[in-house]
């Protein structure tokens, strides 16, 4: 009887630990909806969907990886100008692929600029090239 | 080399384990050969007395090596901030990928063999005549080779991981559409493979639990016959298949659901973001290995006086396996229901 009670208590503890963990989020701060890493605001990419939900990503690379799996296309995509830090529609932004890695763990080398001259300057400085909007 | 309390402990334990196991391995082999040649009871008794020291040291070192498996990953976790681009343990493993992969594969093998030896040793201690002495000595001398490889490997690996090395982290490997854990099941099971994997995982675990329950609480067997041994081997093989299914289901289906990141398939991130998943994995590993330990104990422990207590002892091991696997399954189901 004592042994049975001990086993039951152990299982109750295991269940409580799992349930508590499932309810709490260990991750703090704003996190990438693809791989859970912390988002640096200047590299943030946001997907806004028709149903008023949105998803945030740490980099263009993570956003593209997620887009490949996502069945619903986002209504619009917001990116951040690396020079001023302001959020802009991806359709109005200029994208540059260069040698500079912004988010090393995903090897993100796609940079976002609001002004074309900033994009061209970056491309010349860091051996890059202007590319089309990758979210189209 | 990255210096912190984890790396220093890992190196210290690695060096000490290697040195002690070299001695224990050689001495146990010498004692094994002497015992085989010994004729009188007095001589056998003297050899037995000498074996106590080697067993004492072996038990301490082997328990430390058992605990070293999770400590190894804790050490890699402590290196994350010093490796550029590393966001989880995966990034750290990319500094020395082949060497780290070798150590990661060796560790479960070592864990299993150590557990098997410790259970044989415990069984032998429960008897009065120590009928398993020679087998233990031989097993220990063979086991020492893999333990030395593991200990020395840990020491060299930890010393060779240096900061300032730029790595890519898990997303560029675990989340690509061409990953083998996705393409192989998808080609075999079709586009709905995730659902099939999820269901198979649950069913496979339930079948294994039923089998273990039957072995433990079913019709009592009073001796280990060759047929019992074959049955236990088949159960162990099924447990290994179940283990493979567990890993595949975790990577493709369960880890993304439990983390709340539907397209992220990294198990190292799962341990980081959902820490109690470490307990889930620990219970699963212990449960699966215990099924194997039951078989090895039955295969090696059937000699002399040990034969009388062997069935009850093996049933106890299967009882442990049953509760560990059940605990792991319960934790996963709770996470899936509440996530």
Oligomer: heterodimer
Q: What structural class results from the helix and strand content of chain A?
A: alpha+beta
**Helical proportion of chain A?**
25-40%
Number of strands of chain A: 7
Distance between the termini of chain A: 66 Å
What can be said about the biggest beta sheet of chain A? 4 strands, antiparallel
> So what's the overall shape of chain A?
elongated
Concise overview:
Helices cover 31% and strands 20% of the residues of chain A.
Description of the structure:
The complex is a heterodimer of chains A (136) and B (339). In chain A, β1 and β2 form a beta hairpin. Chain A has 136 residues and is α+β, with helices and mostly antiparallel strands. The termini of chain A are far apart. Chain A has three helices and seven strands, in the order αββαββββαβ. With 339 residues, chain B is an all-alpha fold. Chain B has two domains: 156 residues; 163 residues. Chain B has twelve helices and no strands. In chain B, α2 packs antiparallel against α4 and α4 crosses α11. The longest helix of chain B is centred in the first third of the chain and has 38 residues. Classes of the chains: A alpha+beta (136), B mainly alpha (339).
């Amino acid at each position: 009887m004592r042994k049975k009670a001990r086993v039951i208590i152990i299982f109750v503890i295991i269940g409580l630990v799992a349930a508590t963990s499932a309810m709490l989020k260990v991750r703090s701060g704003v996190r990438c909806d693809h791989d859970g890493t912390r988002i640096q605001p200047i590299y943030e990419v946001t997907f806004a969907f028709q149903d008023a939900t949105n998803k945030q990503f740490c980099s263009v690379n993570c956003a593209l990886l997620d887009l490949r799996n996502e069945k619903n296309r986002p209504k619009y995509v917001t990116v951040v100008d690396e020079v001023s830090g302001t959020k802009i529609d991806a359709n109005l932004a200029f994208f540059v692929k260069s040698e500079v890695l912004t988010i090393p763990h995903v090897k993100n080398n796609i940079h976002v600029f609001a002004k074309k001259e900033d994009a061209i300057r970056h491309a010349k400085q860091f051996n890059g090239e202007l590319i089309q909007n990758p979210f189209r | 080399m990255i210096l912190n309390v984890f790396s220093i402990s890992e190196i210290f334990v690695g060096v000490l384990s290697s040195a002690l196991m070299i001695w224990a391995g050689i001495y146990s082999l010498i004692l094994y050969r002497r015992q085989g040649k010994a004729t009188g009871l007095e001589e056998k008794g003297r050899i037995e007395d000498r074996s106590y020291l080697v067993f004492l040291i072996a038990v301490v070192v082997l328990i430390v090596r058992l605990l070293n498996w999770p400590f190894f990953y804790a050490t890699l976790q402590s290196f994350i901030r010093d490796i550029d681009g590393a966001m989880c343990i995966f990034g750290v493993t990319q500094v020395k990928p082949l060497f780290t992969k070798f150590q990661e594969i060796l560790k479960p093998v070592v864990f299993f063999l150590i557990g098997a030896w410790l259970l044989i040793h415990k069984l032998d201690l429960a008897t009065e005549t120590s009928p398993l002495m020679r087998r233990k000595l031989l097993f220990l001398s063979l086991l020492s080779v893999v333990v030395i490889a593991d200990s020395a490997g840990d020491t060299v690996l930890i010393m060779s991981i240096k900061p300032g090395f730029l790595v890519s982290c898990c997303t560029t490997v675990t989340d690509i559409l061409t990953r083998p854990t996705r393409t192989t099941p998808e080609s075999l099971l079709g586009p709905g493979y995730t659902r099939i994997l999820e269901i198979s995982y649950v069913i496979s675990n339930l079948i294994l639990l039923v089998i273990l329950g039957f072995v433990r609480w079913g019709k009592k067997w009073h001796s280990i016959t060759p047929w019992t041994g074959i049955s236990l081997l088949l159960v162990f093989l099924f447990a290994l298949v179940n283990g493979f299914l567990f890993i595949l289901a975790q990577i493709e289906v369960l880890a993304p659901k439990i983390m709340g990141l539907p397209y992220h398939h990294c198990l190292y991130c799962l341990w980081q973001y959902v820490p109690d998943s470490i307990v889930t994995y620990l219970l699963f590993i212990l449960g699966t290995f215990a099924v194997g330990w039951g078989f090895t104990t039955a295969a090696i422990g059937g000699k002399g006086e040990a034969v009388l207590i062997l069935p009850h002892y093996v049933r106890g091991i299967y009882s442990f396996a049953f509760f560990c696997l059940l605990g792991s399954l319960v934790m996963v189901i709770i996470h899936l229901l509440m996530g």
